[in-house]
Amino acid sequence: MKIGHLVESLDPCGVSAAVADLAAAGPAAGYGLVVVALTPSAQPGIAARLDRTATPVVELNLAPWDPRAVPQVLRALREHGVDVVHTHGLRPDVVGSAAAARLRIPAVSTLHHIRTQPADRGDHLRRTAKTLARKRFVTRTIATSMLQRDWYRAAAGSTAGLSVIPDGAADPGTGTPEAAARFRRGLGVAENEVVAASVAPMRRGQGQDMLLDAVAELPPDEPVTVVLGGDGPLRPWLESRVAGDELLSGRVVFRKDIDPVELLQAADVQLHTTRHDTMPRRLVLGHGTGTPAVATRVGGIPEIVTPETGALTPVSASRIAEELVRTVRDPQLRARRGTAARARFLERFEDSVWAEALGAVYRSALGLAGAPAPAELDAPEPVLPRHGSG
After folding, report:
1. Is residue 44 within 8 Å of residue 16, measured between CB atoms?
2. Is 213 helix (H, G, I), strand (E, B) or coil?
3. Looking at the DSSP assignment, which residues form a beta bridge with residue 311?
4. Which terminus of the chain is less hemmed in, N or C, by CB atoms within 10 Å?
């Protein structure tokens, strides 16, 4: 089988990083990928990764809602002999389903972002209309979390045609003690000090401001250094806040250019204190490195972090601080949770598991012999609360 994945761009901060992992795992599950991006990316990293797996890549240069989009995507899919179209995102969904219809091949679409709080009745009606259109024009929809399943059912009325398959990731590995020791020496931390790392993008809603509030509440002698990795529009403001606070500047370190996996491999704890998130990939990667988590209980995060693999807190700086202190002071707890996090990643999120689950969807959509019947792939209906009769 040849599966055409349609994405907005090959931006490494988007879904294309996961698609690159799938390209490496797909052949063992019986299929190859073709990746079509609607807009070019100035960053070559994802294209290089796809090239290493001999995955064909087509980068188009289409303005938003360019009328040439469907013909150009249609041409790319036809030239590469695609059997199924798999779309990611609003514009790829519209363009990809139209191209699939003209080619008379199945279309599969993954839900990546949802809004659980409609602004008003009109907004709710528009989302419902989009969901019903998806049911009509897409062979199967993939939700990455049970949270999305429940949202979809509320809009569409049922989960028929919907599968829940979490996005996977290539196994990042746990790293080596030598590499972790080198990293810690670079930070200047003492041997008995705990390194807590956050690798979430520094943008609105990701909660780094709340994390700094939590760090400010830690006891002064707590042996912990907090490392903020990555970049984003809020980084200058966060750096300015830390630089202007003597307590924070002695405990918080920024590492803009470090590989997030390398940072997680060297850390003792992963911090993910977002205010909203669906299924954060970097939290999944943290489990893959065997790093226990302290995370906020929002969105789909409880489907990643369990009591065995980390601590879930309310969206509260004080509660984050409490759980971080507890984790810092109990090395046996960190070790148990780290081992469990690694096991959960391999069982649920490792890319070969993901590739096999998607392979069943693709074979079913094509009606291949031995493939599951569509109803077998439907997500279970959520258990709705019973209302008393009064």
Report:
1. no
2. helix
3. 294
4. C
